[in-house]
Design goal:
Oligomer: single chain
Strand content: 25-35%
Number of strands: 6
Low-confidence stretches: none
Shape: elongated
Structural class: alpha+beta
Mean pLDDT: 82
Strand order of the largest sheet: 4-3-2-1-5-6
Number of helices: 4
């Protein structure tokens, strides 16, 4: 692999992963603390157990939940791996799908264009990059319109 191909690969990888970072900061409880009482969440524990409950409150050491049976329980924060909303995020706009799709498609197009172009064919590179970015944007919007995820409210640090 030549230096040109290696450089193109590195640029494409950086562009593709820039938009794929998660919005949640691992180990931070702010989103859980801000929940209204009764908000339906799913909690995953480090033991692998996963259960659905309603948020009741928060203390320094535990999260307080209520099961459908009415049973209230305190779950130690240290045992929690992940907290997600039970409802699908219907307010999730199509913008992030468009941006991710355009970045991945454009990065792929840029890689192809630079790899196959001769020194004076940078108009060709721009055309291929724009075409693949548009295709990627369309695919990203389509996928984002179909797939609505659960909002991650807490994610434990992976030390």
């Amino acid at each position: 692999m030549g230096i040109r191909s290696f450089t193109i690969l590195i640029v494409w990888a950086v562009l593709a992963t820039t938009f794929l970072n998660a919005a949640i900061v691992p180990g931070r409880w702010e989103k859980v603390e801000a929940l209204e009482e009764g908000y339906a969440i799913t909690v995953k524990l480090d033991s692998g157990e996963r259960f659905k409950a309603s948020y009741v409150g928060f203390s320094d050491e535990a999260i307080i939940l209520k099961r459908d049976s009415g049973e209230e329980l305190e779950v130690p924060k240290a045992a929690v791996v992940k907290v997600t909303s039970q409802s699908r995020d219907s307010n999730d706009g199509l913008r992030n799908g468009a941006l991710i799709g355009a970045a991945v498609g454009g990065g792929f197009g840029l890689t192809l264009g630079l790899y196959y172009a001769d020194r004076d064919e940078y108009g060709y590179v721009a055309l291929v990059t724009a075409l693949y970015a548009a295709i990627g944007m369309g695919v990203g919007v389509g996928v984002d319109a179909i797939v609505k995820g659960h909002e991650v409210l807490y994610q434990a640090r992976s030390d």
